[in-house]
Structure formats: structure tokens, C-alpha cells
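S.,

Sequence below, as promised.
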Amino acid sequence: MLTKRIIPCLDIKDGRTVKGVNFVDLRDAGDPVELAERYTVEGADELVFLDISATLEKRKTLVELVRKVAEAIHIPFTVGGGISSVEDVRALLNAGADKVSVNSSAVKRPELVNEISLEFGAQCLVVAVDSRRVGEVDLVHTHGGTKPTELETISWIKEVAERGAGEILLTSMDHDGTKAGFADELTRKVSEAVNIPVIASGGGGNEKHFLDVFQDGKADAALAASIFHYKEVEIMHLKNELKNKNIPIRI
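The prediction came back faster than expected:
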């Protein structure tokens, strides 16, 4: 059985790590290179770096900052934000990223998923999906969660899986930053709909939330930010708690 992964996330704005609630009210959470180094020591399985305003500000991800983070760590490292071409991906992989994450650009031009997967392999490609409940349906949102689309979340995820995505990063905007628990039901539906790994994001606040999203949500990995940034939850303590509950985890 594959081990479940614990993944801290660095949301980057203006070269600093930030964190908000429901994608707004951002506050500073520290230097991204220092945090990345700390997470490597603390036992994180992977790291995700999201330049959250790159698409809104119509610019590329901060390649030099990516290089600095990559030099400071020795765990798999995913980078997203403002990626819209095979050339963008090549630049980030050359800077030290192990995987890239696309979101808004894939919604705008779904063929990008095929192109990246064909050029670099599915193992390099994470498709991030920001989902919010609108009435009775879960809809994909783009541009840092600011723009709703008409794409139904699970249908879109099935499509990108068929196009060559190697992994899904599912963020529930309704749960993001609330520390009230992950979107277990939505995560389970997504996990059952595709045969690629699903990373749950949004709402992790304590050890039980992680246990629930692995058991009930059938997630392959769980991502969180502020609880790790501010040491509200210690990664190794979390991993030991999960191991004690018979969750396969790398200690």
C-alpha cells in the first residue's frame, strides 16, 4: 500500500509566504526559503509552492525564488502559478522543481495538460482545482479563486485525468483557512472518480481532520499551510498520530 503524504504549502505573494481564509485577508507567514528548509527537517514528505497572484498579475512564477527553495531542500517540490506553456514548465524544472501545478491556464486551454504530460511525463504534472459550492453544484474557480467558471468540479477533474494529469490538487475554497476540517465528501467523490493520486487541501486544523480525509475522503495526500507555518500542528507528531491509527505513513 502506498504511504499517505503530508505536504506543507507555501502560498507566495511578493516574494513572501502568506496565508488567508477562504482565499482572502492574507497575512505574512515568513520567508519561503527558511520555511522550506524547516519543513525538510521536520519531516514533510513534499512541498508545494504556489505563486498565488501570478495569474491575476499576468506574470510568470518567480523562477529565481524557486531556484533558492530547490537548493535548500531535498524533498519533492511542486511549483504553480502563472504557468501557461511548455516553456514555462521547462524553466521551472530547470530551476529545480520536481513537478509543476497548473490551474487557470488549463481551464483556459485544456490542451495544455496534454502538451505538458507528453513533453515531460504525467509524473511531472499536477492539476490544481479550486472548487466552491454554488447552489447544488461544486464549480471550478480560477485566477486565485476570484473567477467562477461553469465547469463542474468532478467532470473537469475526470477530463484532465484523461488528458494526462499525474495528480490532482483539490482545494475546497469553502474550507480553505477555516481549520474546521477538509471537504471529505467531495474529496472522496474525486478520489473514486479518477485513478490518479488526489491531494486534499483546505480546512486542515488538527490531527483528526487528517485522519478523516485519509479514511473517509480516500485522499492520497493532505496539504495544509498555516497550521504548519505557525506550528499549531507539528508534522512528526501528526505523522505519529496517523501511524498509531493504522494510516500508512512515512516516519
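The mean pLDDT is 90.

Coffee later?
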